Amino acid sequence: MSGRTLGGPARGGSDGKYYRNPDHLGHLVVFHGPRSRAVVQTAYGLSDAANCLKVSCVTCNKSWDDVDVFGAALVPALTEATVDDVVARIDQGEASAGRSAPWVLADPSADDIAAAEAFLAPDDLF
Q1: Does position 16 have pLDDT exceeding 50, yes or no?
Q2: How many CB atoms lie under 10 A from the CB of residue 120?
Q3: Fewest Cβ atoms nearer than 10 Å: which of 29, 33, 78, 90?
Q4: Residue pair 31/49 in contact by the 8 Å Cβ criterion
Q5: Longest dimension (CA), the chain
Q6: What is the pLDDT of residues 59-116, one digit of tens each?
Q7: What distance in Å separates the CA atoms of residue 89 and residue 59, rounded to the nearest whole number?
Q8: φ, ψ dihedrals at 94, nearest 5°
Q9: Strand pairing partners for 64?
Q10: Residue 9: exposure state from Cβ atoms within 10 A (0-12, 13-18, ≥19)
Q11: In angstroms, rounded to a whole number, what is the distance separating the alpha carbons of residues 105 and 118?
Q12: CA–CA dist 54, 64 (Å, integer)
C-alpha cells in the first residue's frame, strides 16, 4: 500500500482556486497533455483554448486539474508542441497599441527541465 488517498479529480483547481497566468509571471510551469479546445465561451466572448490535463507550477508547488489556458500566443505554443508535457516559464511579450501585453512561454533552461523532472518524479503521474 502506497499510503496515497485515492478519489475522483478536482474540478476548478486542486485547492479550489483557478490557475491564472498573472499569478505565475516568471514561474516555472508544466502544462500536461495540452490539446486544442476551440471556441470556449468566456466572460469576454468566444475564445480558443488549450485544455491541459493538469497544470503544475513548480515554483509554487501547486497543481490544478483540467485547466483551459487562454491567450493568442499561449494556445498555439501549447497545442502545436511535439512533446507530451510543455515546460516553460510564464512571461509577457510587448504590448501593442490599445492591447495588453500577451502572455508567452519562455523556453526552459536545462536547470528548469531538471527542476520540473524532480518536481514530477514523486507523483510518477505520466
Answers
A1: no
A2: 18
A3: 33
A4: no
A5: 58
A6: 999 999 999 998 889 999 999 999 999 999 999 999 989 888 999 999 999 999 999 9
A7: 10
A8: -90, 135
A9: 55
A10: exposed
A11: 20
A12: 6
